[in-house]
Amino acid sequence: MSQKDPVTIYYLQMTSPEQIRGKPRPEGLEVMEAEVKEFRFNRYLYQLVGEAWQWADRLKLPDADWQRYAEREQLRTWVAYHRGSIAGYYELEQQAGGDVQIAYFGLAPKFIGRGYGGYLLTHALESAWSWGDTKEVWVHTCTLDHPGALDNYRARGMEVYRTERE
């Protein structure tokens, strides 16, 4: 995709945990919540996973803004590890009215193509549904993301409810 091509943004949702079409955990992959909040870690994860997909908007934020974002009670972060290395991560943001957004989700570059994305998304969806009184889980992705991202969201049971072009 060239810089001149319009970007399509896809908004996906899941309205019931029964919609999850899970994928089993690959051998050697462990997912843990980062229970001690540390904004510098979130910034590192954002850069590690997002660099290849042009996630740059948050990198210019000062430390105070990162800290306000990442260390809130409404944000939780999980990290996938394979043999001690960070394989990927996701952040869940609890919103008013019972919505939980998958705020960020992705794999580290060295772990793309190993079949970890399906399980990590299954884990994210299960975690979102187990957090409080969740009514809906949603995410957005776009055509700048990994070519398999939209298919992964759909394969796990999420449905597109809106598209936009920029």
What does this structure look like?
- By secondary structure, this protein is α+β, with helices and mostly antiparallel strands.
- The chain has a single domain, classed as Gcn5-related N-acetyltransferase (GNAT) (Aminopeptidase, 3-Layer(aba) Sandwich).
- It has 4 helices and 7 strands; from the N terminus they run E-E-H-H-E-E-E-H-E-H-E.
- Strands 2-3-4-5-6-1-7 form a 7-stranded mixed beta sheet, sandwiched between helices.
- Helix 1 (39-50) packs across helix 2.
- The longest helix has 14 residues, at 116-129.
- The relative contact order is 0.26.
Give the tags:
GNAT family N-acetyltransferase, 4 helices, globular, alpha+beta, 166 residues, Acyl_CoA_acyltransferase, Aminopeptidase
Q: How do the strands of the widest beta sheet line up side by side?
A: 2-3-4-5-6-1-7
Number of DSSP strand runs: 7
What would you call the shape?
Answer: globular
Secondary-structure-derived class: alpha+beta
Largest sheet: 7 strands, mixed
Q: If helices are DSSP runs of H or I spanning 4 or more residues, what is the number of helices? A: 4
Percent helix: 10-25%
Backbone CA Rg: 15 Å
Arithmetic mean pLDDT: 95
Oligomer: single chain
CATH architecture heading: 3-Layer(aba) Sandwich
Question: For this structure, what is the CATH homologous superfamily?
Answer: Gcn5-related N-acetyltransferase (GNAT)
What fold name goes in the CATH topology slot? Answer: Aminopeptidase
Distance between the termini: 14 Å
- Contiguous low-pLDDT stretches (5 residues minimum) are none
Strand content: 25-35%
CATH class group: Alpha Beta
> Number of folding domains?
1
